[in-house]
Specification:
By secondary structure, the chain is α/β, with parallel strands linked by helices. Helix content is 43%, strand content 12%. The protein contains 28 helices and 20 strands. The strands form six sheets. It has a seven-stranded parallel beta sheet with strand order 1-5-7-8-9-10-11. A five-stranded parallel beta sheet has the order 16-17-18-19-20. A two-stranded antiparallel sheet has the order 2-3.
Length: 777
């Protein structure tokens, strides 16, 4: 196919870029600052260097317009909170005394002050800090960070476009502040917030911004007429400003639906819209509203969330269709490239041909530039690139890596009975309690314990050949011994082995399953300074041999108390990987579930009485539109039940979820048919316990009483207070006591103190309740 040049030369751009640097320099500098090894000036210098490097990489690749304001020390929503002056009262003194330390206090908390709540950014694995607002909130503009970044880019000779979280999305992401009635709607503050945005826009115009991007991803979710009216009013008022740059309103992650005509009619100069497969309907919707005459359209045709190469010919065809729908069409990624690793060139362990199937941030920018050139000058100018792309796509489609007939035959043979327990919960719980003999309010942890320097050194020594497999195993055994010994002394009831052998809760399993590829440098930000390396799910999945049994068996040999077997569930194995896009996710989830089912069976055969299959991503992966949710939840819950359905009635199945809004999926949590679920609850003050009670959830639950994403140590009375709140919603015979999440990121001193306080709190509340399980009296 040959396309003619576009009438107006298409430009290339992106919404945002990975922040961390090639070697995670930002993480190291921030953590060094927290520990007192790096000064504030040195931290700011590192950040400035990374920003300059990012812009240079983009410009060298041929990107015409670079984003500013997307860089952050911790989180871009927290940066917006600072920009609009919505500092919680408990943090105001700290922020006024030292802006940088106060900023980190809002993110992480201090020993005396709790941090902001943290939850997932739409349906990604990125976490943002939730704004806390109330009827007394006073907004004040502080554009210093945004203006400084803009001026840096201009001074370096770039064409910059500041990127801000839009006012409607900011308010829709917010929650009522502590002490504010739960029915308070932050969106009612819109008229109070818009003048602050007006002031920021004026500052950016004065500093030299031609365009400013306002991100409104919340508008791709189901929105009420009142919320759509608020969006219309917001962009009517902002568009009417005279002292401003041109406005580009951006959406991503799904189709705009009813919000599209609102934005299309708004008096702004441009829209940035997601046109990847997940939001392809935006093209038809845009045509239906008459396009964007006189406006700029930034077309997100390169997937900013996954790592597979773009089908350039298909994208060019889509771009060609869009040409008649706007005054000019520019080319971009579908969303910020924050969600993908930096560069495939750093990967040395992936076969070169397979590596050609992958596109990280740098490769995606090259794809964007190629598409813009083809759109502007005609496909003849990129003929060689199109031919190479076709060859790479064909190589992947026809590779034996992607298809295993035995795996496909096995998934096709799955029956409904395979995804069911042999007895209903009410009958099997008696068998489990008799086998385990646990006290009222049993205590446990989520799974991982601190990954110490010794553990990381052992892993590095093994990779470098400084120790052999036997030497590595002895070091891991020593760590497991310490973890078990501490838990026994602390008085925990159900123990874990600590997962010292695991580099990551998904990657560890991916490295032991066929069909997965592991990267060495594919780091992606999850939150703050927490970076993960999502594996790449490239082909059909099977389990060659047991993955966890020997470590769990060894831990159990050290204690008479039950030790949980710890696995990562099938939905999370997909969600926290870069998942294949060449077959339905339901099919891939079923393959992973069957591999985990074998592991569950082997753990049970080894004598493991409690098996936890974590699904923290179940809510995260929930489709943004309600109409798409039933199908997803059906296959997601079936995959979990398929992985756990074959166990005996007296084997207790646990699951775990964290840092998400659970109210939307309580029925799905019920449908998992797990015996016990542990959930994040400390920062949200036991909200999930109330949601479970409102649903009538009939099983056991452990809403967390220890926020592990903060360095502060909660006192025993604080944890006891949370337990008492939980007891108002969940009966004592069904309430567990545990942290919010795994302890991998914490240090041993705070872990010891926090867990000892957790156990002490459980004992205090047990005493208040009479000390015995009512069902065991």
């Amino acid at each position: 196919m040959t396309t003619k040049p576009a009438a107006a030369a298409a430009r290339s751009t992106v919404y945002g870029y990975p922040r961390q640097g090639q070697h995670r320099e930002l993480k190291k500098a921030i953590e060094g600052y927290w520990k007192g090894r790096v000064t504030a000036d040195a931290l700011r210098a590192t950040a400035a260097g990374l920003r300059a490097s990012n812009w240079r990489q983009l410009a060298d690749a041929g990107i015409d317009e670079v984003p500013t304001g997307d860089f952050s020390f911790y989180d871009h929503v927290l940066d917006t909170t600072v920009m609009v002056g919505a500092i919680p009262g408990r943090h105001r003194d700290a922020v006024e005394a030292d802006a940088l330390n106060g900023y980190f206090a809002m993110a992480r908390g201090t020993q005396d002050v709790a941090p902001l709540e943290m939850t997932k950014w739409f349906d990604t694995n990125y976490h943002y800090l939730v704004p806390e607002l109330g009827p007394d909130t006073v907004f004040t503009a502080d554009s210093s960070q945004q203006v400084a970044a803009l001026r840096e880019a201009l001074a370096l000779g770039h064409t910059p476009r500041p990127v801000l979280v839009g006012p409607v999305t900011y308010l829709l992401l917010a929650k009522p502040a502590p002490g504010v009635p739960a029915d308070f709607e932050p969106l009612t503050l819109l008229d109070r917030l818009l003048p602050v945005y007006a002031e920021v826009l004026a500052d950016l115009r004065a500093a030299g911004a031609e365009w400013v991007q306002l991100d409104e991803p919340a508008l791709v979710q189901d929105r009420t007429p009142a919320e759509l009216n608020a969006a219309e009013r917001a962009y009517r008022d902002l568009g009417a400003l005279t002292d401003r740059s041109k406005l580009l309103v951006a959406s991503y992650f799904d189709r705009l639906g009813n919000a599209l005509p609102v934005l299309a009619k708004a008096p702004v100069e441009g829209l940035a819209v997601d046109f990847t497969e997940s939001a392809a309907a935006n093209l038809d919707d845009l045509a239906a509203v008459g396009g964007l005459p006189g406006k700029r359209l930034v077309a997100g045709v390169v997937d900013g969330r996954n790592i597979w190469i773009n089908d350039l010919a298909a994208s060019l065809s889509r771009l060609g269709t869009l040409l008649g729908l706007a005054d000019r069409v520019d080319v971009s990624s579908s969303c910020s490239l924050l969600h993908v690793p930096l560069d495939t060139a750093a990967e040395r362990d992936i076969e070169p041909q397979v590596l050609r199937w992958l596109a990280f941030a740098r490769q995606k920018t090259a794809e964007i530039v190629t598409l813009a050139r083809g759109l502007a000058r005609g496909t003849d100018t990129i003929g060689a690139r199109l031919a190479a792309n076709r060859a790479d796509l064909s190589s992947r489609a026809n590779s034996p890596i992607t298809r295993d007939p035995a795996v496909r035959a096995r998934t096709a043979a799955v029956s409904e009975a395979d995804a069911s327990r042999s007895l209903p919960y009410a009958e099997r719980t008696a068998a489990q309690r008799a086998r385990l003999g646990l006290p009222l309010l049993p205590t446990t942890t989520i799974g991982s314990f601190p990954q110490t320097g010794e553990v990381r050194s052992a892993r590095a020594d093994l990779r470098a050949g400084r120790i052999d497999a036997g030497g590595y195993e002895e070091r891991i055994k020593a760590e497991i011994q310490e973890v078990i010994s501490f838990q026994e002394k602390a008085g925990l009831d159900v123990l874990v082995h600590g997962e010292a052998e695991r580099n990551d809760m998904v990657q560890y399993f991916a490295e032991r399953l066929t069909g997965y590829l592991a990267t060495q440098h594919g780091w992606v930000q999850s939150y703050g300074t927490r970076y993960v390396r999502p594996p790449i799910l490239a082909g059909d999945i099977s389990r060659p041999e047991p993955m966890t049994v020997r470590w769990t068996r060894y831990a159990q040999s050290l204690t008479d108390r039950p030790v949980k077997g710890m696995l990562t569930g099938p939905v999370t194995m997909l969600a926290w990987s870069f998942v294949r896009d060449d077959q339905p996710r339901a099919e891939t989830a079923r393959q992973v579930a069957l591999a985990l089912r074998e592991e569950v069976r082997d753990l049970e055969a080894a004598g493991t009485s409690v098996i936890q299959v974590d699904e923290p991503a179940l809510r995260e992966t929930l489709p943004l539109r309600a109409a798409d949710r039933p199908e997803y939840l059906a296959w997601a819950t079936e995959a979990f039940r398929l992985s756990t359905g074959g166990v005996r009635p007296d084997t207790q199945i646990h699951t775990h979820m964290c840092y998400a809004e659970f109210g939307d999926i309580v029925q799905a949590i019920d449908d998992l048919d797990a015996d016990v679920i542990s959930l994040e609850a400390a920062r949200s003050h036991m909200q999930v316990a109330r949601e479970l009670a409102s649903h009538g959830y009939p099983r056991e639950a452990g809403p967390g009483v220890y926020d592990i994403h903060s360095p502060r140590v909660p006192g025993a009375e604080e944890a006891a207070g949370l337990l008492r709140t939980g007891l108002k919603a969940i009966p004592a015979e069904r309430l567990w006591v545990n942290p919010d999440c795994g302890l991998k990121t914490r240090g041993w001193p705070e872990t010891r103190a926090s867990l000892e306080n957790l156990v002490a709190a459980a004992r205090v509340v047990r005493g208040e309740l009479g000390g015995e399980r009512p069902d065991l009296i």
